[in-house]
Design brief:
Order of helices and strands: EEEEEEEEEHEEEE
Distance between the termini: 42 Å
Radius of gyration: 19 Å
Oligomer: single chain
Strand content: 35-45%
Number of helices: 1
Structural class: mainly beta
Mean pLDDT: 77
Length: 170
Amino acid sequence: MEVSDPQGSPQSSRLTPTRVGPEKIGFLWKEGARIKNWKHRVFVLQNNILFYKQALNDTKRKGTVPLDANWTVKSIMIKGKKNSFVIQNPYGGRSYYCEAENEIIKQEWINAISQTIACIGGKGIFDDSEAFADDDSIVIPDDKKKVGLRDFELKAVLGKGTFGKVVLVR
């Protein structure tokens, strides 16, 4: 099924989010994933997707932050960094540590990312635990309590594949 946007160009309805958060573009410092130095990057928040690239006119992305409803963004204190915040991965994977030029820009980014997470809504990878049917659940004989994904503490993402993620739980 195809739908048209206000300019009349067709889009896939599957890719069209029900609510779209704010759009924002700007420079932030980001801590590297492997080598822990700080890199100046252009961050773009568009159509509920947050990505970054090396320069403003680059067409190729350096990386994408895979936001969903369970991610959080908050201000933090990092030694030597005045205006830092973290985009936190709730699944034990990579979190993104960023620094803005000043407090105002930091707060604008935190607000924009928070609004985008709210627009994504209940679409976290573990928010579909209600989708398990009764025969898919494990029943504990003592108290007849059903066990689901929400009964476990997520420790780490062990692997990602075509059909989902393998996670370590406790």
